[in-house]
Structure formats: C-alpha cells, structure tokens
Amino acid sequence: MGARETTVNVLLVLLLPAVALTALFIGEAFYITLATRIAILALAAVGLNIALGLGGLVSFGHAAFFGLGGYVAGVLATHAFNMEPVAFGLPGTTAMPAIWLVAILLCGLVALPIGLVSLRTSGVYFIMITLAFAQMIYYFAISWPAYGGEDGLSLSMRNGFPGLNTAKPFPYFVVVFVLLLAGLLLFHRLRASRFGAALEAARQNPARLAAIGISPFAIRLVAFVLSAMITGLAGALFADLNRFVSPSMLSWHMSGELIVLIILGGKNRLFGPLAGAALYVLFEYALGGLTERWQLFLGLVLLAVVFFARGGLIGLLAGRPRHG
Amino acid sequence: MSLALLIEQFLNGLQLGVMLFLIAAGLTLIFGVMGLINLAHGSLYMVGAFACATVAAATGSFWLGLVASLAAAAAAGALMEVAIIRRLYARDHLDQVLATFALILIFSEGTRWLFGSFPLYLDIPPLLQGAVALPGGGQYPLYRLAIIGVGVIVAIGLYLLIGRTRLGMRIRAGESDREMIAALGIDIRSLYTIVFAFGAALAGLAGALVGALQSVQVGMGEPALILAFVVIVIGGIGSIKGALIGAILVGLVDTMGRFLLPKALALMMPATQAGPVGAALASMLIYIVMALILAFRPSGLFSART
C-alpha cells in the first residue's frame, strides 16, 4: 500500500466518526443515521470484497446474505416480542450479539451449498448462478406469508446491546462502526495471510495453485462462505438501523448495489468498500434531494467509472496500486 | 383436477417458455458471438412493450404497434451497441455487469421520465380475441396460442437463419474464431451491431406480445431477464438449441409447479398449510432444477463453449 493510499485510508476512517460526533454536538441526528448507513453498507461490501476483490468471484447474489441477516434480526426480535419459540423450543431474542451470531452462522450454512454448486462453474455462469440462487431466496421470502411476505417485517424497537442504549443514534453508530473496523481488520489480516495469498493465486492462476498442491475450489469455497457471513452480519445491522426488513434487501438490485459500492470505491483496495459506500450514500442523499430520478445520474456516473476511472475513488485519490 | 385444466396449464407453461425463448435467444446469441453478458437485455424487452403500447394507443392498431416494437427495440439495441457495448467486449465480465447494470438504471429512470410511473395497457387485437375449445371441455385464449405459434416460427426462422444463410455462417464463424473472420475481410464491427440489434428486436417482440397479457410498466424487464438467465444457464450459454429447450423446460416447470405442487402437498399435509408451502416451493422450483442440472453439467445442457 502506497503512502498516499494510507493517508486516504486514515482520512476515510476518521471521516465517519467525525461526521457522527459533529452531528451529535449540533443535535442533527439525521447525519448520525447517514454515517451509520454508510458504515453498514461498507461492511456488507467488505464482505463481498473478500469474494469479489481477493478471489475474483463476481457474486451477483450477495443480497441473499444481506437479506438473510436482516431477516434473522427481524424474525428473532418478532418471536421474542410475541414470546413464541422460533423452532425446537428455542426462544427469540432481542440481544444483538446473539442475533449477529445466528445471522453469521445461518449465512455461512446457506452459503456453503450455494458455493458448492456455484463454484463448480466460473465466469458468466458463476455470475448468473449466484444471481439465480439469490432470486430463489427472494421469491421464497415473498411467497412465505409467516414473516410479512411481500410487505416485509417491522421491528417494534431496535434490538439491544448490553450496556448501551441502542435506540439512540449515536451509541448505535458506535456499535456499527466498531464492527466495520473489525471487518476491515479481518480483511486486512486475511489478505496478508497465507490463505489470502492462496486466494489471490486462485484468482490469478488456478492451475499453478493446483500444481503446488492447494485446491482452488476449497480456497474459493472458504472465501465465499466467509464473505457471505460478513455480508449477513451487515444485513442484521441494516435491519436494526431501519427497524424494518423486506424482500427488497434480498433483491438482485441490492446485489448490484453491493458490487457498485466496491467498484465506486476501488476494487481490491482495503478501504474501497468504505469509500464506495460513502460516495454512494452521499450521492443518493445529495441527488435524491434534488431529483427523484437520481438513479439515472447514478447510472451515468457508473458508466463513467467503468470507462474512465477504473481504480474507483481511491484510485483517483491515491494513484495506482503497487500490486494487484 | 380435470384434464382440461391440466392441458390449459400445460399450454400456459408452453407460452411462458416460448416468451422466454425469444428473450433468451438474443441473450445467448450475444454471449456466444461477442462474449458479452448483457443485463440491459430486459430493458430492450421493456422498450418493445412501451413502443407497442404507445403506437397501438395512437393508431389503434396492435399490428403497427408490433412493427414499432421491433423497430424501436432494434434501434435502441443498435444505439446501445455503438455507444456503450462496443467498448465492453474486451473488458472482463465485472465491467460488463457494471456497465449494463448502469444501462438498466438509465433505461428504467429514462422510461419513467418519459411515460410516468403508471402502467400502460395494451389490448389484444380483435383478430386474436376469443378462445379455442380444448379436448376434455374448457376454453383456451386464442391469443396465447398465437404466441406459441410465433415462438415456433421464430425458432424455425432462427434455425434456418443460423444454419442456412450467409449471415448465419458469419455468426457461427464469429462464435468460433473472431480474429479469423476479421482476417478474412468480414467487417466484424458491423456484424456485432447487427447481431446485437437482432437480439434486441427479438426481446422487443417478446415485450410487445407479453404487454397485451400483462400491464406495460417500468421494471417489467427484470423478472423476465432473470428467468432468461436461468434459461441460458440451463441450456448452455451460447447455444440457441439450449435456449429453446431450457426455455420450454423453465416455462413448464414453473407453471406446472405452481399448479401441481400445492395439490400434491395437500395429499400429505393439511390444506391450510399446503397452499403457502406449495406456493413458496413452487416459486423456488426452477432454481432448484437449475442447481440440479448444473451439479451434473456445470456448463449447461448444450454448451457451445466448453
């Protein structure tokens, strides 16, 4: 990582708490929520970046895990609220750590069979198959009436974290931000590890990797599952932020947006997802305030990024990566 | 459950399959020849539907609308190819996904800008109104039968076009070796534009035909696009034959699953549960079929590129 990229990264990390703290002092809770939204989307994209950036696996179905995480938060909280067991006599819960754990485990469990089938293929097939699996879960959520079906599920109140009043925007921002930092740290450590080296090798030259006795398939599968788990955690946080979860979190549009976040920020950069999420949310906020048609302009910006700024925001600010 | 109902559902499945074939044929052709994954193909389907609805409303003739849908979708496709898509052939799939995703946003919002958020309606032409008697009693709408007929004609036409004409020969040559046919003096850039516009016209035709069954609205292309993806993944990307078989398979499995699964489950569990469980399972069924097929044949049933 070059010195300039480090500077950009440090500034990016400081930006969110600076915005949130300023908003806290001037009493504008809305901006804290905006910063929280950025952090959650960034965490979701950090998850996807393990598969997409490091592994070169263009998953067009990560909304499945984002939405599943969201539904875990919604369903567990609803059961706890109604005092009904979820399944096998196990109660629901409104404790965030328990919800996160369930979301992470469930997403891992779902990602495993999806990965087993999808990773047998590559290229365009992989893109379309991950998309199709996500659609499968999307249609299931729509047609399964128990948890709101198409209308989605409201959480009566935000779930709790021991010792914090998460109903207030700032403490919840702190929770989310710490998790984002943990996600970034994990990504950083992963990339520097032997596993990360093997994963990047699986992207660059799977035949060579296989020749030295490491199965690209197994490496990719682990990366895919890990990636799904982190995106799922972000989904649980997102449901708690909005106190609402609906099939739109599972939609293919969401999968596309997660990819867009990474590319806007800069593919295969540690802080790419954060830069992308910040840019995306600011764009949505600034243009969404001016015109209902902001997605049209988002489309134009995306085209411009694809054709003229392939390194994304970080690429523009920090120059080319030293290795890729 | 009567025989007539079963036949009706079977025909519905066939009709869905035929529509999917029109969309998937262009998609798979574009992938086979240019190696491009085009998410915006559903937008061309939408363009066709909107063009047909607008022209039919203005002139009162569905048939003029149909011609307009072909022309508008082909023109939109050609424009898209020349302005954007052409620059993507050499890029990796991720760039193609992103740029065509951006095109969806632009097309959807642009259409909403022009036509508003309210759906348009398109009437079935008088010639094709009415119904046909089915064996076993019951009636089937003539229009849906006509759609099946159009699909059969397009399938035969495509077979002849690809297999028997000079253009088809160039398309096949483009699939197997694009440098070689460029070296033989064929203008590959205009060939690509023609193939793209042709695929777009087929999608536009499908949009116009379906527009008379459903409402014409922004976002109608996306579910169709995703089903078409399932079709070409099952059939093998790049294979027209695979697209045909995949489309019929998906159309039948989806329609029959929605019809039969709740009934089958009702034999095993209380009817109040069987309905929702059956409906939920049926909506996932084609994806389960796709996963099963890919588990055994990772590159689809009739892959053109192995």
UniProtKB/TrEMBL annotation, chain A:
It is a multi-pass membrane protein. The keyword Cell membrane applies. It is found in: Cell membrane. This is Branched-chain amino acid ABC transporter permease. Its main location: membrane. It comes from Shinella yambaruensis. The chain crosses the membrane at residues 12-32, 38-58, 65-83, 95-117, 124-147, 170-188, 209-238, 271-290, 296-318. Keywords: Cell membrane, Membrane, Transmembrane, Transmembrane helix. The keyword Membrane applies. InterPro entries: ABC_transp_permease, LivM-like.
From TrEMBL, chain B:
The keyword Coiled coil does not apply. Its main location: membrane. It is found in: Cell membrane. Keywords: Amino-acid transport, Cell membrane, Membrane, Transmembrane, Transmembrane helix, Transport. InterPro entries: ABC_transp_permease (IPR001851), BCAA_transport_permease (IPR052157). It comes from the Bacteria. Pfam families: BPD_transp_2 (PF02653). It is a multi-pass membrane protein. The chain crosses the membrane at residues 16-37, 44-64, 70-89, 101-122, 142-162, 190-213, 225-253, 274-296. Belongs to the binding-protein-dependent transport system permease family. LivHM subfamily. PANTHER family: ABC TRANSPORTER ATP-BINDING PROTEIN (PTHR11795:SF442), BRANCHED-CHAIN AMINO ACID TRANSPORT SYSTEM PERMEASE PROTEIN LIVH (PTHR11795). This is Branched-chain amino acid ABC transporter permease. It comes from Shinella yambaruensis.
